[in-house]
Design brief:
- The protein has helices spanning 45-56, 81-89, 93-99, 139-153, 201-206, 272-284, 329-349, 355-385, 389-403, 410-416, 467-476, 486-492, 518-524; strands spanning 31-34, 38-41, 61-64, 78-79, 101-103, 105-109, 118-121, 134-136, 156-159, 162-169, 174-180, 183-189, 191-194, 211-225, 236-239, 246-252, 255-260, 290-303, 308-309, 312-314, 320-321, 459-463, 480-482, 497-501, 507-511.
- The protein is α/β, with parallel strands linked by helices.
- The strands form five sheets. The protein has an eight-stranded mixed beta sheet with strand order 7-6-15-16-17-14-18-21, with helices on both faces. Strands 9-3-2-13-20-19 form a six-stranded mixed beta sheet. It has a four-stranded mixed beta sheet with strand order 1-12-11-10.
- The protein is 30% helix and 24% strand.
Length: 536
């Protein structure tokens, strides 16, 4: 079913022009020109992910960031299975696996207790993904890997120490004003992606507010180095009876992240190092502790009503702030980029592209998913982790007794992995049927291979008679893939079908093989059905 279009997206939108009295522009310093088809504000993991996704589709982009160099801090430390699938598609997974620590099981256990509080068992996901683990890796390593990858494509111009001063945009282009040192530049791009974080200048200049709430508690992140004898790799020690739950996450040799979800607001800054050492010794055991980094922050659940405003789009923290209690903040931002990149690339390169439908669908799908899936998970985690200690302990004991959470929580594993991607109403979703708008499982086919590598940029998937699907695949310029396997019969709840699998692994439309409407399949790829389709 096609989603509705907001008329506001087709109006002329203009932001306030820039002003820079500190460094007035002089003719010698002024330069103008045309930049890449897509400009990206923010060289963090989300901005780099957008650029990499575009580059893999052959589209040039420019990234600018006011920071003089990549952030050196660890911050987000866990990459979940769905994001690992995306990295595999973008051909960077091997670099991440070489630099990170695989986590096939997340076992939360109180120090001194043998029975686990909770067991997230990623190995149970074998039927639907090759990424049967999470990856513990500090965010600065993630950014370095992505930065090297985008630079290696030769299609991305990365500009650090460059500030976005302002922009104007209409229905066809964006006029950007940036400053590097004392030199101001005015350039034109087709689109602007705001991936510039919680304090996004793109969002501010659009006049967009993030609706939601700020939690009353503050959280502590701290990276510590501990003694070798305490450096266990098979569990995450957890303290339940503090004011807020405390968890240790291992992401390197003797290097652990400590997360305290509710820090005493009266704790003085000078007392913080001793406080962190005390937490580490309670988690891991007595012995020396080296504090490597720390940060205290407020937690939010907020998002923009829309992620698209004409030619400007928001992604990651620029569009939604999530409490890290559910461990899904950076991952959801990279998944924004995955959804957006192929659509932007199609809007830029394909002669039959319906750019309005493509970009509206990004806003519709991601705002809906963040609101219905990501933020409820993080809100539930936040409530649990900051509940009164005696209630939290009692709840854990009750859940384990009733549902065996300490041994295995299958539904929770699936949700935590972020493999459950149910997009609702969208400008690109057409037809009806089980599986529509959902992520296709990366199942094993009859030849023992995963199905995703057979569809690197999407596919026509069939089961039953492939004859009518061959012309459809040729018309759309997509590979024809045999999906006649039991796991997909269960997924679609039918024995015979032809389905469009989008480049982001989402089912865009499903039909009976004897009644395929080529126009419907083209529309599900964001193409005008009345125009020629096929190659670029």
């Amino acid at each position: 079913m096609a989603g509705h279009r907001d008329p506001a997206t087709r109006t002329h939108l203009v932001t306030t022009p820039h002003a820079s009295p500190a460094h007035p522009l002089t003719p010698a310093e002024a330069t103008t020109g045309r930049v890449a088809p897509v400009a990206i504000s923010g060289a963090g993991p989300v901005g780099l992910a957008v650029a990499l996704g575009l580059a893999r589709a052959g589209v040039r982009s420019v990234i600018f960031d006011r920071k003089p160099y990549p952030d050196p801090h660890s911050r987000a430390t866990l990459i979940l299975p769905r994001t690992l699938e995306i990295f595999r598609q973008w051909q960077v997974l091997d670099q991440f696996l070489a630099a990170g620590n695989r986590v096939p099981h997340v076992r939360l256990r109180e120090p001194g207790h043998d029975h686990p509080i909770l067991h997230i068992n990623f190995t149970k996901l074998a039927d639907e993904t090759a990424a049967m683990f999470a990856l513990a890796i500090p965010q600065d390593h993630t950014e370095r890997i992505l930065l090297r990858a985008v630079e290696a494509t030769g299609l991305v111009d990365v500009r650090f120490a460059t500030e976005l001063l302002g922009f104007e945009h209409d229905t066809t282009r964006v006029r950007l004003h940036t400053r590097t040192g004392h030199t101001e530049i005015t350039e034109t791009a087709g689109y602007l992606v705001g991936a510039d974080g919680a304090h996004s200048s793109v969002r501010a200049q659009l006049g967009v507010e993030l609706a939601g709430k700020t939690y009353p508690t503050q959280a502590l992140l701290a990276d510590v180095r501990i003694n070798p004898e305490h450096d266990r790799t098979d569990e995450w020690p957890t303290i339940l009876n503090h004011r807020g739950i405390v968890v240790g996450i291992r992401f390197g040799d003797r290097i652990w992240r400590i997360i305290e979800q509710a820090v005493d607001e009266h704790l003085a800054d000078q007392a913080l190092p001793d406080h962190i050492v005390g937490l580490a010794q309670e988690l891991f055991g007595a012995g020396p502790v080296e504090v490597l980094w720390r940060s205290i922050y407020h937690k939010h659940e907020r998002r923009a009503h829309r992620f698209r405003h004409g030619q400007a789009l928001l992604a990651g923290d620029a569009g939604h702030l999530n409490s890290p209690a559910g461990g899904q903040g950076m991952n959801s931002g990279i998944q924004d980029a995955h959804n957006l990149a192929w659509k932007l690339a199609a809007a830029v390169t394909h002669p039959a592209a319906d750019a309005d439908a493509l970009l509206e669908s990004y806003s519709e799908e991601r705002t809906s998913l963040i609101g219905r899936r990501v933020q409820p998970v993080t809100d539930l985690a936040e409530r649990f982790q900051t509940a009164r200690p005696h209630r939290r302990v009692a709840l854990v004991r009750a859940l384990d007794a009733l549902f065996g959470f300490g041994q295995s929580a299958g539904t929770m594993t699936h949700r935590f992995s972020m493999l459950d991607v149910p997009y609702g109403q969208s400008a690109l979703l057409h037809g009806r049927g089980k599986g529509l708008g959902h992520r296709l499982p990366d199942v094993l086919t009859d030849d023992g291979q995963r199905i995703y590598p057979k569809m690197p940029t999407g596919a026509i998937l069939w089961a039953g008679d492939p004859t009518s699907s061959q012309a459809l695949a040729t018309d759309l310029g997509l590979p024809l893939v045999n999906g006649d396997v039991a796991a997909l019969t269960r997924f679609f709840d039918r024995d015979c079908y032809v389905a469009l699998i989008r480049p982001d692994h989402i089912v865009g439309t499903i039909a009976d093989p004897t009644k395929t409407d080529h126009a419907q399949f083209a529309a599900a790829l964001g193409r005008h059905p009345t125009l020629p389709s096929g190659g670029k």
